[in-house]
Amino acid sequence: MKTNRLIIIRHGESEFNLKNLFCGWHDAPLTQKGVHNACSITAAALIKARLEIDKVYCSALYRARHTAEMVLCEMKCANVPVVVDWRLCERHYGNLTGFNKREMADRYGEQLVQTWRRGYHAVPPAITVDNPYYYEICNNLIFSEVPAGKFPLSESMAMCVERIKPALEEIKQDVLKGTRVLICTHGTVVRALVNQLEGLSEAEVEKINIVNSVPIVYEFNMQTGERIGSMTYLGDPEYIRKKTAQVASLGERSSEKS
Ligand SMILES: O=C(OP(=O)(O)O)[C@H](O)COP(=O)(O)O
């Protein structure tokens, strides 16, 4: 049986991940640790598993592009083509963008904030002009490919699934031709991809939390196009368990950070 693999990663730790802030379409950079982990966790795991890459599909946001670049350099294949696709950008977090998750839970209640974070159809309040990131997001040229009328003011998981569907179909065609693809994207988009690839129910996908930097591997039968098995993380199970719990939680207030 001829098989091929698809590798998916959530970018390394961003400045907003570190500060526990909703990020979405704000173009936050990686922290030093995020840059370091692209080499010491992502590339190291791929090199150890002898997984080579022929092509990268990447979100247009800087934290994902920087991660992809670091991984390719560390794997000594910086010439690999990188296709930048706005459809792989994080879900737009609306007016939550830039706010601390724990502080939002204090203001609106844990249940509502967790519903905004993980509810399949929950759309956070639309971003307004008084949001500190409104103009930065609207004027960011990385979104120039977004078709007229499709620029969101906020997105649910369900809306995110709809926009990644055609991109995933294109990527799958490449994988079934034998191209060894890496997708470099974001927490919600990885969840949307897992949802589509595994045909999960809405309730199942609401429970998934994705760790930064650790590669996820899917295998496909190239003749039938069928997926073999479910997602496999390439990394230390104890590290993944601890980090998954952190991603799922509402984290700390800004004032609790050193
Ligand atoms: O921008 C985000 O995701 P990213 O760090 O994967 O780009 C979100 O703020 C992640 O937050 P969540 O885990 O509460 O959905």
UniProtKB/TrEMBL annotation:
The record marks H186 as: Transition state stabilizer. Keywords: Glycolysis, Isomerase. GO terms for molecular function: bisphosphoglycerate mutase activity; phosphatase activity; phosphoglycerate mutase activity. InterPro entries: His_Pase_superF_clade-1, His_PPase_superfam, PG/BPGM_mutase_AS, Phosphogly_mut1. SUPFAM superfamilies: Phosphoglycerate mutase-like. It catalyses: (2R)-3-phospho-glyceroyl phosphate = (2R)-2,3-bisphosphoglycerate + H(+); (2R)-2-phosphoglycerate = (2R)-3-phosphoglycerate. One of its GO terms (biological process) is glycolytic process. Coiled coil: none annotated. It comes from the Eukaryota. Substrate binds at residues 10-17, 63, 90-93, 101, 117-118. Belongs to the phosphoglycerate mutase family. BPG-dependent PGAM subfamily. This is Phosphoglycerate mutase. It comes from Drosophila busckii.
